[in-house]
Amino acid sequence: MSAHFYTLSLFVTLLFVSCKQEKQISPVTQEEIAQSNIDIDHLPSWNDTEAKKNIIAFVEEVTDRNSVNYVEVQDRIATFDNDGTLWTEQPAYFQLLFALDRIKTMAADHPEWKNKQPFKAVLEDDMKTIMASGHKGLAELVMVSHTGITTEEFEKIVQDWIKTSKHPTKNVPYDQLVYQPMLELLEYLRANNFKTFIVSGGGVEFMRAIVQEVYKIPSEQIIGSSIKTEFDYNEGNPVIRRLPEIDFIDDKEGKPVGINKYIGKKPIFSAGNSDGDLQMLQWSASNSKKNFELYIHHTDEVREWAYDKGSPIGGLEKGLEEASKNGWTVVDMKNDWKVIYPFELK
Amino acid sequence: MSAHFYTLSLFVTLLFVSCKQEKQISPVTQEEIAQSNIDIDHLPSWNDTEAKKNIIAFVEEVTDRNSVNYVEVQDRIATFDNDGTLWTEQPAYFQLLFALDRIKTMAADHPEWKNKQPFKAVLEDDMKTIMASGHKGLAELVMVSHTGITTEEFEKIVQDWIKTSKHPTKNVPYDQLVYQPMLELLEYLRANNFKTFIVSGGGVEFMRAIVQEVYKIPSEQIIGSSIKTEFDYNEGNPVIRRLPEIDFIDDKEGKPVGINKYIGKKPIFSAGNSDGDLQMLQWSASNSKKNFELYIHHTDEVREWAYDKGSPIGGLEKGLEEASKNGWTVVDMKNDWKVIYPFELK
């Protein structure tokens, strides 16, 4: 359940394509590299620009036992936003595209939806009307598509969807639209004994069903928005049921709150791409230990998308101002990254 | 904020003793042992009774690649209750003793408490009146003593308390009242690549301030009850403030809900000591993978306490019935454990 869902405009054609999910290209195992003494490039998909230099300088400093800024292993906490930071979020959050697909699938059991908004609009691919339904309409679509089932059922539905769906414009499975340079960054940090977490406005159970294998991040290190659930003993076959009620919104001020709730430590590294990530970056920036804040700036209208200020998805304005003021590192996707997606390596 | 707080009777003398906290005896590093080929006892403080044999048989089976019940490392999730399972919970939950101590400390700034219940009763060590104040009174004591400050301030207060307080009858610092056999069990599981979690009705930030070092469990693997918090940018010095409102009660049906929320995987091993842990054990028992459920039965009125059915703290009745019905392992503390506390090893 993402707060994002309530503030976005859509321009989407939904495709149902029955195809096998391809395994993404496994990024180079940075751990092995780091453990050898070979002077090798840990971030091969990054150009040799300032962003890359800053990251490497930080990691080398906090892992150097002789540095005054050395950080003990248990405090090497790194938190990453997901949508727009680790994978693409255009032309709409993938979770919303899932919700719309799911409504269409469910429509067979709901003949009344043909004449009931906002469902009618979904079935007719009428995005204008969907958006006109506002927060209330979008919330109804999300609740209907995400709740009323058990956690196991939901996981299977999401996993089936990711295996059979393709991105509307890139025409590849959604989980191939992760950023190769960020996969390398995750591996590089882990090779230096950082613990990597996702801290996203996206629904935690939606993400857990998809991204564990993609990012090599276990479910217990994925933090997101959540709905309320309840335990049902179910006559000896216990299940957890998903209820149509918001539990926690892991966005904006919710991000440091979520970090405190789930992790209980302040990160020394955090990365985001929108003003919704600003409070998370402020939180890590307030760490008394040496810390690093990273903003991904979407500047590549050819290979990905270009947007920032005023974008209904991933809007970034205050964050850029604060990055500039505080000397945070800003990635210029167009100029700092050699490739965007793993499949470009082929 | 524990639901426990609302269902207990107290018989407590509170002592303030200014003494340095002693480091607990570090349990043998089971990891080193497991990695060698020496045939050594992994659970030296356990007698060679059925409980110990069952535990070892389970661990050897799920870690044996040739077994049909082999479990992959990422699924080796073990969840432990805290109060009464990893440390003593008598004559009252340590967190409640902390709350009462804290009220006394705060009283200097609250002269009105001398004439206002339930505070008056706390200041006069009048346990009968405290208990008579019921859920409402106890909740007020907990809220006043646990909220209205930042998370950093709360952590420091708890850490100062644990360093300067002693258990009312055992007369040692509270964090020495952990169970040596359970420390060994935690180490043994971790040496076999289990990830160990605490899943307790106790307040998560109270536990995190104390037990990380004691149990060698990092804060992000400690799950508990929580109060609501809010992020405050605080003019560039961000803090998280603790609000006087319950967020989540991690007890009974809340335990599997908390496990799903924080971990996102079903455990294959869970341990508890009261009916408040029953749903957690039911949850792990419903795992399609080979699993193990453990109940600690408090049977040692000499070295620790003896209680089960009808006890206002750690009541255990249904759990024993279900353990018997399902073949779960029940530890008889008196007969299965050579020592209770680490200091008995001296």
Automatic annotation (TrEMBL), chains A, B:
Signal peptide positions on this chain: none
One of the record's GO molecular function terms: hydrolase activity
Cofactor: Mg(2+)
Pfam families reported in the protein's UniProt record: HAD
Organism: Namhaeicola litoreus
Name of the protein in its database record: phosphoserine phosphatase
InterPro entries named in the record: HAD-like_SerB (IPR050582), HAD-like_sf (IPR036412), HAD_sf (IPR023214)
Keywords from the named record: Amino-acid biosynthesis, Hydrolase, Magnesium, Metal-binding, Serine biosynthesis
Involved pathway(s): Amino-acid biosynthesis; L-serine biosynthesis; L-serine from 3-phospho-D-glycerate: step 3/3
Enzyme class: hydrolase
Enzyme Commission identifier(s): 3.1.3.3
